Amino acid sequence: MKKMLAAALYGLPLFATPALAADGPALFQANCSVCHQGNAQGLPGQFPPLAGRIGKIAATPEGRNYVIAVALNGLMGSITAQGNSYAGFMPPFKTLPDDQIAAILNHVAGLPAGPDATLFTAADIAAGRTESLTPTTVAEKRKALDAQHPLP
């Protein structure tokens, strides 16, 4: 009874719905847009663009693993994206559930104009959690990947 009253007073749903976890656009807006902007175009010199890049990077298994590593462990150091240099720190988002991280990554992989991609699953994110990396190590992983498959 108290739960129902609290839900009614605060306009909260009584039960969490799985659809909320699968809402990539809303999750991106809530967790990523403050830096990468609402359209995932980034801010030149400050935050790299994601739109038009994540799907290309994730086209190889190594690229998919790298994207997952960034989402889970963050990234620290200098990178180049679309010919522009960025030096900074992206925080890890490992506190988010696996299905939410997958939904965010699928949303971004489909940008700028397409529907959400289906490249990442919650199981992929869970597998990525088995490798504990520092943000600096993720940057080193990026350099190795870029040497193997030039990143956009």
UniProtKB/TrEMBL annotation:
Keywords: Heme, Iron, Metal-binding, Signal
Keyword hit for Kinase: no
Residue intervals of the Cytochrome c domain: 19-112
Highest rank taxon of the organism: Bacteria
SUPFAM superfamilies: Cytochrome c
Family matches, as Pfam families: Cytochrom_C
Coiled coil: none
Secretion signal span: 1-21
Name of protein: Cytochrome c
Native source organism of the sequence: Komagataeibacter medellinensis
Lineage, uppermost ranks: Bacteria, Pseudomonadati, Pseudomonadota, Alphaproteobacteria, Acetobacterales
